[in-house]
Amino acid sequence: MNRKQDNLSMTFKQFVTPPLVSAIILTLLYLSGVDRVAAIDKDHETNLRKYTEVQRKIIENHVEETSIDELFKNSMKGFVRNIADTTMDISGTPLDTTFTDVEIGSIRESFSKFENAYMYLMNNSGEDEDMVALVEHSIREMFRPLDPHSVYIKPETSESIQEEFSGKFEGIGIQFQVIDDTITVISAISNGPSDQLGIQSGDRIVKIDGDSAIGFSEQDVVSSLRGPKGSKVTVGIQRPGNNQLLDFEITRDEIPLYTLDSSYMLDDETGYIRINRFAATTHEEFTEAMKDLRNQDMERLILDLRGNPGGYLEQAVRMTNDFFPRGTKLVATESRHARFTSEYRARYDGPYRDIPLIVLVNEGSASGSEIVSGAVQDHDRGLVVGRRTFGKGLVQQQYELADKSNIRITISRYLTPSGREIQKPFKDGREKYLYEIYSRDDSASGDVDQFVENVPDSLRYKTASGREVYGGGGVVPDHIVDVDRSNELFVLMRRNNVGSTFVRNYIDRQGDQFRSDWKDRFGEFRSDFKWSENQRDDFVRQLSDNGLVLADTVTTAHFDDNKLYLNDSLLEEQLEIPLGWMKADLARQVWGNEYFYPVINDEVDMTVNIALTLWPEVQKLQVMRDESESSGDMLDNIIPRRN
Questions:
Q1: What secondary structure does DSSP assign to 109-172, as a single string?
Q2: What interhelical angle do 571-591 and 488-495 show, nearest 10?
Q3: If DSSP codes are grouped into helix, strand and coil, which group holds residue 9?
Q4: What is the pLDDT of residue 629?
Q5: 227 phi/psi in degrees, rounded to 5
Q6: Residue 328 in contact with residue 345, Cβ under 8 Å?
Q7: How many Cβ atoms are within 10 Å of 96's Cβ, its own excluded?
Q8: What residues contact residue 349 under an 8 Å CB cut-off, 6+ apart?
Q9: DSSP 3-state assignment of 375?
Q10: CA-to-CA distance for 593 and 232, rounded, in angstroms?
Q11: Would you say 360 and 306 are in contact if contact means Cβ atoms under 8 Å apart?
């Protein structure tokens, strides 16, 4: 160690030894909220305080009884495994992870031993150890025996997650994509700072505050363009058709982050709403969209929750409430802690309680999406359509730590109104759990058949009208949609960014003429716009430049060494989805993000079109529900199971 490190270690050691005294002081200060006055190096104090905070939060709040001995031993393994000095002999030292005759019985004892290991490493390592990173490794390993949704979140990640779920951030208000190492504006957010200055889709941001922005990663862009409301940033823009560099000084402002991707009328009767997550503003956005659709004489609704991973429980419950009469059971949570065990019922008569309803789900629908679809299904309130959902039935609480990092701890499980727990198993490890959806049968009906065949009687439940539903692995839709999702050409296009580049180049060359022809005729664009034969041929040439190999000797489309081998006879069929996606992307760049999904649903997404044919099934469910209500055979109580 160099002299500076030695002095630092000695100064720190004087103030933190003996370990027991330090543990008591840190614990008392943590509980009382009083800041320490002693001149201890802030980073090391924060590291140790953070370590004990995590253990305390897990022990006090996790849904399952947790062993402090297991938490400590796992944390030590994570700490030691990542030490920079690989030549260090740790046998018989505080860093020894053989744990001979070690049995930890309290948080105080765990902290004392970890502090000893921390100090020993500081005083004896021959390398410049990153103690902050080592503590983070120890915390991550601490979470390993817990459920997959209990996690540690670094400070820099915590901020972006908070923005995502608060429903707003502070910045310049653009949607962008890095294409060929250049920041390309996809659209300026309506009435945001950039939109007000005339920044438009297709603009390239090549300088930020006078420095080149070529080669920026997406994270670099976010870091450079976001900032406090009222602060300024200057961007240099290259605009297609203009040889001069355009400088814009932009005053940052508060920018809304919408969770509602799209809402529009599918036909004269049917409204469509797509929600991408449940954040602080979701119910407000949903309410506004429903009012607008009702003003357009909507009589029935398709609610699209595909790919929605969940979010705020309260927002999912509020939206569910809107479809039910007051007093209806919506969801319950159960935990070993009474404070996290509760039942949620409709607090008011939902304004849309009588509207015919279809809910679309898939394997990306989780948590809050499963709360909504589970309640709709259990009460026979509407038809759930699509593919089996993810299977996340755990509720997390987030806690901020001393350095502004956060931890999420699973505090309870939730039960749908019939009493079923839809959480899928996770005992085989986090990786297998997260990738389980990729191991499912490609056929949605095949996946459901395999799943239902293995559901034990204890996880079979009944809806209000007596239909059988299942727990233990997500929500099984009432109507399974088997859509062939394999399109290798689309994968090649997205992997190599060919589609986005093609649309960008098209707007560069023909944007003015396109806007002149179509800007005020979006409805006609949806029905009438087609890529020309020359444009299709040009697109295929670009695909060929990026790995497409066409040959009549190829029997099955397949990838090999980043090349896609495809039979000539399959080209036209495989082109349908990429061309449809590019038409939707063109709509997004010209009209705005909310115009993407109407075109995708027209051109690519067969599930929406299938759903439009299922209203007779919704009517049958309503009849069954009415009969159940008249007979009094309804779901009366969710009874949380006590551990």
A1: HHHHHHHHHHHHHHHH-SS---HHHHHHHHHHHHHTTS-TT-EEE-HHHHHHHHHHHHTEEEE-
A2: 40
A3: helix
A4: 77
A5: 175, 175
A6: yes
A7: 16
A8: 325, 326
A9: helix
A10: 25
A11: yes
Please choose, from the candidates 498, 501, 507, the residue with its C-alpha nearest in 3D space to the C-alpha of residue 548: 498
Residue 529's identity, in one-letter code, is F
Measuring CA to CA, how many Å separate 317 from each of 11, 323, 339, 348, 439?
53, 10, 18, 12, 31
Cα distance between residue 131 and residue 212, in whole Å = 34
3-state DSSP assignment of residue 573: helix
* Selected catalytic residue, list 365, 367, 405, 465: 367
Angstrom distance (rounded) from CA 121 to CA 132: 13
pLDDT of 325 above 70:
yes
Question: What does the pLDDT look like over 515-569, one tens digit per residue?
Answer: 999 999 999 999 999 999 999 999 999 999 999 999 999 988 998 988 999 999 9
- The question of whether 41 is a catalytic residue gets the answer no
Using left for φ > 0, alpha for ψ between -120 and 50, and beta otherwise, residue 102 falls in beta
Catalytic residue among 378, 380, 403, 605: 378
Residue type at 371 in one-letter notation: I
Residue-level pLDDT at 91:
94
Stretch 465-489: mean pLDDT? 90
For a pLDDT cut of 90, what percent of the chain falls above it? 69
Dist CA 488 CA 493 (whole Å)? 9
Structure tokens belonging to residue 24: 């008591």
Amino acid at 430: R
Give CA–CA dist 394/423, Å, rounded: 7
Cα 437 to Cα 618: distance, rounded to the nearest angstrom: 28
Residue 481 CA to residue 614 CA, distance in Å, equals 11
This prediction has a pTM of 0.83
Question: What is residue 632's predicted lDDT score, i.e. its pLDDT?
Answer: 66
pLDDT at 637: 53
Q: Are 418 and 461 in contact (CB under 8 A)?
A: yes
- Among residues 334, 422, 316, 331, which one has the least CA distance to residue 643? 334
From 392, 424, 583, 605, active-site residue: 392
The region that residue 206 occupies, defined by phi over 0 for left and psi between -120 and 50 for alpha, beta otherwise, is: alpha
Strands 563-566 and 329-334: unpaired
Please state, in angstroms and rounded to a whole number, the distance separating the CA atoms of residues 585 and 501: 11
Residues 124-137 pLDDT 10s? 998 999 999 999 99
Nearest Cα residue to 357 out of 244, 471, 463, 478: 478
Tokens of 543: 């695909």
Token output for 56: 């305390």
Q: Does pLDDT of 35 surpass 50?
A: no
Q: Which residue has the tokens 């410049």?
A: 128
Q: Report the pLDDT averaged over residues 389-397.
A: 94
Angle, helix 42-61 to helix 68-81, in steps of 10 degrees = 140
367 as an active site residue: the answer is yes
Region class of 638: left (phi > 0), else alpha (psi between -120 and 50), else beta: beta
pLDDT at 15 over 90: no
Residues 467, 380 contacting (CB under 8 angstroms): yes
* Residue (of 389, 391, 452, 394) closest to 424 by Cα position: 391
pLDDT for residue 3 is more than 80 = no
Helix (H, G, I), strand (E, B) or coil at 254: strand
Q: What is the pLDDT of residues 134-192, one digit of tens each?
A: 999 999 999 999 999 999 998 877 776 776 667 678 899 888 888 878 998 887 877 78
